[in-house]
Each structure stands twice: as structure tokens, then as C-alpha cells.
Amino acid sequence: MRKLLVFLLFGAFCVSVFVFFVFGGKVLAQNETSVFFAPAAGSFAVGSTFDVTIALNTGGRAVNAFKIKVLFPPDKLQIASSGVGSSITGFWVNRPLFSNLNGTIELEGGIPSPGINTDYGIIATLTFRVKSTGQAILRFDSDSAVFLNDGKGTNANALFRNSVYNLILPPPAGPIVVSSTHPDQDRWHPVNDLVLNWASPFPVEGYSYILNDDPVDIPDNISEGLKIGAVYKGLSDGVHYFHIKASRNGVWGGVSHFGVKIQTSGPADFKIDVSPGKRTSSKDAILSFETSDQISGIDHYEIKVISLSPSVQSQVDSSFSPLFFEVNSPYILKLPNYSSYDVILRAFNKAGNYTESSVRLKIIKPIFEWVNSTGLKIAGIATVPWFILWPVAAAILISLLYLAYHIFRWHIRIDLKHKDGALHDSGVSGKLEELKNRFRVLTKVLVFFWISASALFLLQAAPARAEPVENKTATPSGIQQLSPPVTNLLPKDISNEELFYVGGRAVSGNTGRVIIYLQSLTSENTFSFEAGVGANGDWFYSHDKFLPSGNYLIWTQLKVGDQVSPPSSQMQITVSPVAIQLGASRLSYEAIYLILLFVFFAIIIGLGTFIIYHFRQGSRKSGLLMKEIREAEESIKRGFAVLKRDIQAELEAIKRGGGELTEEEKMKETQLLKDLEEINRTIGKEVWDIEKAMGHSAR
Asked: How far is CA 249 from the centre of its chain?
């Protein structure tokens, strides 16, 4: 009995789960209002018509209005009927609008109260005619909406589902057509020379055929003969259609149509945006790129990373594929080390053609690098520990604050003296003028160093452009069977601290070798290197050493077994001197900049010390000068006081005598002259001391 009860409970649980997932899922689905196309997909032949129904599922809620805008590709589809067929609409707010020019259908209608609640309500039925082959997407515009019957016109937030239809050529009703150059009618081909062949399952008297841009054209009734093939050369980019029919017993049969998609051009030119920048200390670079192709459309993007440093190239090869690999935008490029890199990006269209863009990244070591657990790393060379850095920084800050406070007080005192009129007499104005002159000299020195550093930077940044030159190498005779390699990878500019590389394509499978010739126009020496050719024809070579600065000629040859192709056209590159060669050592300009930076700071510190020293000496000598001035003033006062006393005494004596000077008067006269001479010597000495002190102060 207990087992039966357990069995019944388990059965009830399973039934509950089944009901929940089946009927509960349907209830959940009913709560979702949706608008969709029926059929949602399908394949239709060019020239035929097909109906598409716009249907509404209210999701268990009542709705009473809708506003729908449908977008379709006007180059592939057109509205064949202006009617909308049967509809749940009670009235149209605006009459339905159709535009085969813009590819739009606008429907806006209402449903009388109490609205409608349905799983499948037909809003309209549209009839389309297929104009050309390809893929047609029917989609609802973002302004489309369905409104609830709640008296408020609430948006039901309906889900709008789009549809995709394949548009094909009608099945062949005449001869069977094939192409050795363009075998797949649905695929784009990069070849503009078309080879067609055809055959009929029964004997025929002749064929009539035509090639044009009309997908379902009918050839005329004039026979072109019994040829079973045709060749069309130099066709333009786009979609072309071949139409052919056969005549049997004087009666022309059905027509076969064969579509050909051709594109020899690549996508539009584009640029690569790099964040945070092309020259940065961050090893993570975010690449953003986008382009368009108006004919076949963009298929994918491929990238290749090339290091210009021999020590980093092996790390690049281990981090990235040595060949091109597929990426999407934005792409985070994680570079392995500090170096210069060339990033080459190719945008492919659906025909297999590509457009190439490149950018050079310079990942440099930061001058100051924050190391959390250790300290501050300077130029990647030395690390200052935190327990030393913070006290030093605090001491510098306190010293600067202290100096600023006292200079401010000194400035206030000097300003008060200037307002009182004592500045000119004390000689401080001359010292301030001297300090101004020294600051002018300091400014000139700083400007000179900044101009020098900027000039070096401009010399480094000036690009060297590679231009093709005339091929001066004679083509050997008797080896015309092989085509020379195509070079499509060559740096636009390179320096003598960056590696040279070259790459391209060659028609040889994986059995050939590409010989690269490099001729220096400075020394006229010619070097040769070899690179293997991959299975897809790609080849690439990266030099393992830096090239000396100068101009070079580059050309290539393809070697397969004992056969060698003619030389390719020559290309010229310039290797710019951005590093100084000192014997076997190389000193890059970045290192020179770092040295100049340290020298610059040393000069600033030296000039600051010089200014502070002379300011203190000037202040001290200014005090000595003021002391000498006061002593001179006191000596002059005493001297003139004595002189005044002697002169007054002499005058009184003359007045008393009223006549010729006596011996005593003559002695007094002599004493007067001695006093004057003494005063003169004393004043002269003090003046000399003042001039000497002033001379030292000026120096």
C-alpha cells in the first residue's frame, strides 16, 4: 500500500511538471505581445512574387491600435500590390503608404472597443516582386508600436521580429551553364575575366545568349551558332547575368540564367585609432577600426604585429601568429615588451580583396613608475624605496614652505622701505635690478635647452618616405615561366634602431623561396636573403640586425627548384639616423633625451644654488655697505664740526686783531690747514671703502 501511495505521488509530480512546462510555458508566451512576418524565411526566384503577412500576437492582452513601419531593400524587392488584403483593423488612422523608391511601408490603424485579444491577427498582407538575387531583410522600424486597450494608450512594448529571405535565379529551363572562373553564383569573385561553358541534353540547331545586368532577361531569336563556350574580359565590378536559350526543330526553348558576382576593388581606405596613443608607456593598446564596401560588403579583418627590435621579435612570434589572424574592432593588443611595433591591418570584402592600413606603436619605458610594494622606479633603472622617498619629499616640501614664508616676509619689508623712500638710498634697488638681470640670463639658458630638445625630437619624428623607382636591373632571358613576387608589406619609414622587414604574395604554393635583394646606395654593397612561401602564397622576412642609416634599393625574385623568376620592380626605402653609433655601442635619442633631462635638472639645481649663494652674499655685502655709509657719514660730520670750530676761532681772532696776522695767528692758520688735510684723508679713505664695498656688491 505504501509503495502504491509513493507511486501515485511521483506520478502526480511528473504530471504537474509536464503541465507547468507545456501549458505554463504557453501562458508565459502569451504574456508577450509580438509582431512578426509570415513566412519568417524562404527562397524565391527573381521575377516571381510572394506574399508576406504581418501578424500580431497580443500575448493575452487586449490591444486597440498600432503604428507599424516596415523597411525593405528596394534594389532587391518591390511592392507588387498596393492593397493590404484582409485585416483585423477596424479603421485606418492614415491610409497605408508604400514607397518602392525608399523601401518603406507605413501602416497606422485602430480597432474598436473592446479591442482584440488573439494569437494570430492579420494586420496586412503584402505582395513583393523579386528584382535581383541576394539576401533581403524585412525589418520593423524602431518607431513601430502596439497600444493596449486600457483607455490610456499605453505602449504594449511589443517584440518585433524581422525576417530574412534568399532571392535566387529561377531554375534553368534551357541549356546547362557552368563557369570555370566563377563556379558559385552566390559567391563574389575577384576575377573580372569570365569563362562560360554550356551544354544541352538534346540536339540543338543553335544557341542565343546575352550577358547584361538584368537578372531575368530573354535573348533574342537570332542564333549565335553552335559554340559551347564564351569568354568575357574586363567586366566591371558588380553582378552580371548570362541568359541563354537553344533552338530545336525551329522552336526556341526555355531560358537559363546564370549569375556572376565580380569585384576586383578592395574596401574603402580607413585609419586605425589607437588608445591611449601611438607613443605610450602602456603595453595594452586598444585598436579601433571600421570601413565599408559598397559592392560586396565587409567580410572580416586580419592583423599582423611586427616588432622592430630583434630581442622582442621572438616574444611577438610566441604571443601572436607569425601570419595574419582574424580580429574584430575594437581589439585589445597586449604587447609583450617595450619596443617599436608595426601593426598592419587588412579589411577583406566578400570577394577576397583587401585594403591595408598600418600604424607604428612606440611602447616606451616610463620615466617614473609606481611600484606598489617597493617604491618609485626611475627610468626603469633605479628604484627609490618608499621609506626614503616619503621623508625626502616631506623635507623638500617643508623647506619650500619655509623658504616661501621668509621670502614673503622679506618682500613685505623691502616693499615698506620702498614706500618710505629708503630703498634708493640703501642701494637695495641696484641689487634687485642685478637679480632681475640674472633671472633674464637664466630664462635665456632655459629657452636654449628647450629649443635644443625640440629640434632633436623633430629630427627623430621626421618620416622617411619610400618611393618606387625605376627598375634598373636587367631581366634575365629564358626564365619567363615564373612571375616575380608581389611585395605588399614594406615599412613606410624606418630608423637605424628599428628592424627592416618585407613581405607579400607569390604564386608557387609552399615549394618556392623568395630571394630578397637589399642594395645600399651609400656603400653600393648588395645583400641577399631568402624567405619561404606558405601554402596560401604569403611570404615574410624580418632582418635580425639594424641597418645603418642611408638609402636602400629593394627587389625580389621567386625561386622554385632550378627556375628563377625575373626580378621584381625596385623599391626604395630610407633608414633615418635616430641613434648615434659609438663603436660597437648604440645610443638612441631616447637615451640622449634622458641624459639631457638629467643635465637639465642639474643645471637648474646649479643655477638655483648660484642664485641663492649670490643673493645671500649680496644681502651680507649690502649690510656691510650700509655700515660703511654710516661710518662715512659720522666721519664727515666730525670732520666738518672740527673744521667749523677752527674756522670760527680763526675768524674771531682776525676780528680781534683787525690787522696783519701775528705769529700765533700764522700757527693757527697752519693748524687749520693740517686739520683740513686730515679731514680730507679721512673722507677719502671712507669713500674708498664705500666704493670698494659697492664694487664687491656689484660683482
From this structure: 69
Could you tell me the CA-to-CA distances from 338 to 280, 341, 366, 660 in Å, in that order?
A: 10, 9, 10, 107
Per-residue HEC secondary structure of 450-466 comes to: HHHHHHHHHHHHCCCCC
Q: Which of 263, 282, 285, 266 is nearest to 274 (CA)?
A: 285
What is the strand order of the sheet 284-288 is part of?
273-275, 284-288, 331-334
CA-CA-CA-CA dihedral for 520, 522, 524, 525, to nearest 10 = -50
Using alpha carbons only, how large is the chain's radius of gyration in Å? 48
For residue range 613-634, what is the model confidence (pLDDT) as tens digits? 656 665 666 666 567 666 766 7
- Segment holding 487, helix H or strand E: strand 486-489
Whole-number Å distance between alpha carbons of 143 and 138: 15
**DSSP letter string, 94-124:** EEEEEETTTTEEEEEEE--TT-B--SSEEEE
Please list, in sequence order, all residues whose beta carbon lies within 8 angstroms of the beta carbon of residue 180, skipping any fewer than 6 positions away: 195, 197
CA distance 476 to 559: 13
Q: Around 69, how many Cα atoms within 13 Å sit in the side-chain half-sphere?
A: 8
Task: Tell me the per-residue pLDDT of 140-189, one tens digit each, with 9 for 90 and over.
Answer: 999 999 999 888 888 989 999 999 999 998 888 889 999 999 999 989 99
- For residue 450, CA distances in Å to 45, 384, 453, 587, 591 come to 73, 28, 5, 21, 17
Chain position carrying cell 583587401? 354
Q: What is residue 152's three-state secondary structure?
A: coil
Provide CB contacts within 8 A for 37, sequence distance 6+: 52, 53, 54, 55, 138, 161, 162, 163
- The DSSP code for 20 is I
Question: What are phi and psi for residue 258, nearest 5 degrees?
Answer: -130, 120
Residue 684, number of CB atoms within 10 A of its CB: 10
Evaluate whether 68 touches 123 at the Cβ level (below 8 Å): yes
Estimate the crossing angle of helix 428-461 against helix 386-420, to 10 degrees: 140
| Per-residue pLDDT band at 348 (split at 50, 70, 90) | very high
Distance CA 512, CA 355 (A): 26
3-state SS, residue 495: strand
C-alpha to C-alpha distance for 496 and 519, rounded to whole angstroms: 16
Closest among 379, 356, 301 to 333, alpha carbons compared = 301
Helix axes of 663-698 and 428-461: crossing angle, nearest 10 degrees: 20
Residue type, 564: V
Q: How far apart are CA 382 and CA 376, in angstroms?
A: 8
Judge if pTM exceeds 0.90: no
Q: Tell me the CA distances in angstroms from 433 to 430, 443, 626, one per residue in order.
A: 5, 15, 18
Q: Give the 3-state secondary structure percentages of the chain, helix then strand then coil, rounded to 5.
A: 30, 35, 35
Task: Give the N- to C-terminal CA distance of the chain in Å, as an integer.
Answer: 122
Taking each helix axis as running N to C, give the angle between helix 589-657 and helix 663-698, from 0 to 180 degrees, rounded to the nearest 10: 170
Distances (CA, A) of 11 to 2, 25, 164, 372, 585: 14, 20, 44, 64, 87
